[in-house]
Amino acid sequence: KKFYINNGEAEFYILERKRIFFYGYGFKHRINKLSKEYLLDKINFKENDNIIDCGANIGEFFYCLPSKINYFAFEPSLPEYQCLNSNLVTKNVNLYNVGLWNKNTNLDFYFNHEDADSSFVKPSKFFYKNKLKVKRFDNIFLNDFKIKLLKLEAEGCELEVLEGCGKLLNNIEYIAADLGFERGIKKESTLIPVKNYLEKFNFKEVTRNSERLVVLFKKI
Q1: Which of 5, 163, 181, 213 is the one with CA 20 to 30 A from 154?
Q2: Is residue 1 within 8 Å of residue 113, measured between CB atoms?
């Protein structure tokens, strides 16, 4: 089952009924809130910038971005990916039904559609699990691929995704990472390990949204 709202242009599909309340003040209000959470006003986007959306879910983040950019979205969960595909079907986008990791393999994926907390690390709450394909980021894109922004929301697996970027980290200008308390049964934050790792590649923290613990890093 899927639910939908009218976003002013077309139907926008939602997987879980309880998440409809996010749109209580309208679709644009939801998108503006999301844009602020990911600190996008700190980034000067240009035409044909490459944007990577890791953990795209149902595709809301696309609507936070300016037009005439190149959008690449990764979502391993098939139900969310089907919504993502429906929501962006008329757009010029690149969608991947695959997870990002630090090696190419198959991993147990723990599904929690209700709270949008599905993860490759076993969480405290999930409804079922399944083996899914994961790939290294640097096995998908060429070494000279330039990236304006990597939006990173991997439900506690942010470090593994970054490790899979390899030398492509040198080609990323900004990383907006959700580093909240979502990793595993203990619900740990990935802030410290991610920050320490990115410092090795000359990324510095620009600012953060403490309410959601989204941190914006810039390549220095």
Answers
A1: 5
A2: no
Section 98-116 average pLDDT: 89
Angle at 95 between CA 141 and CA 89, to 5 degrees: 150
- Cα 18–chain centre separation: 21
CA distance 125 to 128: 10
* DSSP at 78: H
Task: Take residue 1 and report the two structure tokens written for it.
Answer: 């089952």
Decide: 118 and 126 in contact? Cβ < 8 Å.
Answer: yes
List the Cα angle 211/62/40 in 5-degree steps: 45
* Tens-digit pLDDT profile for residues 17-62: 888 899 999 999 999 999 999 999 999 999 999 999 999 999 999 9
Report the distance separating Cα 67 and Cα 131, nearest Å: 36
Cα 10 to Cα 175: distance, rounded to the nearest angstrom: 30
